[in-house]
Write a structure and sequence with these properties.
The protein is α+β, with helices and mostly antiparallel strands. The protein is 23% helix and 44% strand. Strands 2-1-3-4 form a 4-stranded antiparallel sheet, with helices on one face. The longest helix is centred in the middle third of the chain and has 15 residues. The chain is globular, with a radius of gyration of 11 Å.
Length: 64
């Protein structure tokens, strides 16, 4: 792991890709980018997590 903030893309519950960034700002940009790139896949979910605290900072699609 190279950073505190992890972005994960899963499709139908299976991991597709993930990455770590030291900057939350950079990780949020990557999160938005990956939503754009992979959001149209059936069952896609993109999650941004603070690995230091374990907190989910944001996820797409948002749970309603």
């Amino acid at each position: 792991m190279t950073g505190r903030y992890r972005v994960t893309v899963t499709v139908q519950g299976r991991p597709l890709m993930h990455g770590w960034w030291a900057s939350e700002t950079t990780a949020r940009r990557k999160f938005a980018s990956w939503v754009g790139e992979h959001g149209s896949r059936p069952g896609a979910r993109v999650t941004l997590t603070d690995e230091e605290t374990g907190e989910t900072l944001t996820e797409w699609p948002a749970d309603t």
